[in-house]
Write a structure and sequence with these properties.
Elements (H helix, E strand, L loop, with lengths): L1 E10 L5 E6 L4 E5 L7 E12 L11 E17 L1
Length: 79
Amino acid sequence: MITAVGGIEHKGFGTGAWALVTEDGTTYELLDCPRDLRKIGLHVKVQGTLNDDVMTLAMIGKVLNVNSFEILEDRSSVE
């Protein structure tokens, strides 16, 4: 299990992919992103597990399965 803090982004590859970009610049693709995280600009803390045996069309970073999250700040726009 990992804990990561950063901002939610929507990457425009194909149908699009939800991502967490951490404060150090690491990008995680959020697999089956929870609806409450699907807001560009949220600043969140996410706990989850890395899924090393999954490939996605977006290929924007390691795939993160979200187990839990906390919204730290909401500067979002709903997509």
